[in-house]
Amino acid sequence: MTDRKGTADSLAGADGGSTGQGDADAGRTDGVTSDDESTAGVGTTAGGSDATDATSAEGSGDPAVELSDVRKTYHLGEPVHALDGVSLTIPSGSYTAVMGPSGSGKSTLMNLVGCLDTPSEGRVEVGGEDVSGLSENGKATLRGEKVGFVFQTFNLMPRLTAAENVALPMVFRDRSREERSDRAGDLLAQVGLGDRLDHQPSELSGGQRQRVAIARALANDPEIILADEPTGNLDTDTGSEILELFQRLHDADNTVLMVTHERHVAEHAARIVHLLDGEIDEIETVESPRRVAGRDAESGDGNEGESQDEGERGDEGERGEEGEAVAVDGGTGDRGANNDPNEADGRAR
Fold first, then answer.
1. Number of helices (H) and strands (E), helices first, in the chain?
2. Which of 58, 90, 215, 224 has its CA 20 to 30 A from that of 143?
């Protein structure tokens, strides 16, 4: 498994980790600027399936995920080719965004990488293991060990506390109760919820629920973090805070694969993979990824605080407070009813 310097410590930020909302690493080099008025510089790789062989120089070591000539066909009266000959390498430690219109294959790609489905043809390797030949139990084990999920709709268990939600994936790794409790508390502290351990999802705001979901995704130190529209249900300010967390995760050498419809969100990644009609249309290299401007942290209160994401700010309140969380297992153990490939992430293919 990739050494990621200790994920919990990496989220502490400059404030020593009391809330996980310390200043972003504004001094990062490699052409990245922390100026909140900056825009992302983008380069383009030629479109088509051959473009998928272009791999960002970012990341090191063995690939976290590798797709080789992958096809996924659904038989819905007539064949529907959700993915058609896709080859793509996700290097360890990279930050990749996936964009495309509805029906382009984004959901199918995420389901395959997340071991929620198998390809009709081709190979999908996650952490060096070929998903195609695994049984359902084998895929569930691989999901629990090597994949962390962050969904648009949070997908927290509504009757469990924040700490219990974060600890749940570790149950399937046979960790002791004490170890689960300690790690859940540490992770929640690092995402700014150290004083919300015993709160249920209905007692948390939308941004706080997404932080719990991020902490849960990190519970088993996965090979790759899959984020499906992680800011889609959040207002602009809260979305910026969530993007800052992903920024720090990536800075700590975690591998992040994010699906989004928003261009400014995608430009936080180092690469943008554009899907169209089940094929890769082009791969962009973001020469100067957007950075969330640093801000002062509240000391241990777990509040959302204020943030800026490239000068884009919103006035609306958090929409996440209006609804209940959805109960699924988050893809961490045996597949539950809501982990159907077309339902687990709350999106139609």
1. 8, 13
2. 58
CB 280 within 8 A of CB 70: no
Range of the domain at 49: 7-336
Higher pLDDT, residue 145 or 164: 164
Helix (H) or strand (E) holding 11: none
Distance CA 72, CA 88 (A): 14
Residue 220 banded pLDDT, cuts 50, 70, 90: very high
Which residues have C-beta within 8 Å of that of residue 142, sequence separation ≥ 6? 115, 126, 127, 129, 131, 134
Helix (H, G, I), strand (E, B) or coil at 146: helix
Q: How far apart are CA 206 and CA 211, in angstroms?
A: 9
Check which CATH number belongs to the domain holding 87 and give it.
Answer: 3.40.50.300
In a domain, 242, yes or no: yes
Q: Please, what's the largest Cα pairwise distance for the chain?
A: 58
Q: Name the strand (E) or helix (H) holding 141.
A: helix 136-146
CA distances from 45 to 50, 83, 109, 207, 273 (A): 10, 20, 20, 35, 10
